[in-house]
Amino acid sequence: MNDDLKISGWALNSEYFCTILHELRSDTTYRAVVDKLVNVPEAADTRDTEAIKRIATAYLKLLFPNVRKTTDITARDFNRYCLRRACAMRATIKNQLGILDTEYRGKDIPQFSINEELCNNEK
What we know:
Number of helices: 4
Radius of gyration: 18 Å
Number of domains: 1
Structural class: mainly alpha
Number of strands: 2
Largest sheet: 2 strands, antiparallel
Mean pLDDT: 87
Helix content: 55-70%
Low-confidence stretches: none
Shape: flat
Order of helices and strands: HHEHHE
């Protein structure tokens, strides 16, 4: 061990951040919040539903790490920062899949909504 091997600056911060994110992977609390908040349309494709819920869960973990139950976040914040962005990301992926394979061409993702009465509705 010598002075050249010591971690300093951004390396230590990124290693710590990666460890935190790795620990959050096994925390199912966030997915339970997303499952309760997202209303899935009846004709929704299972692949789309699962993808949108996973992406929304990732946004929730990154942007709102303090959320432990549905009342810890407002419907407006969840919709704006998690659900709408997850739907937009899935729509982009589905569009790109349509370019590669005719099975996905011309198919849109269903409209997901929020179960607002479960959220903290403070403005």
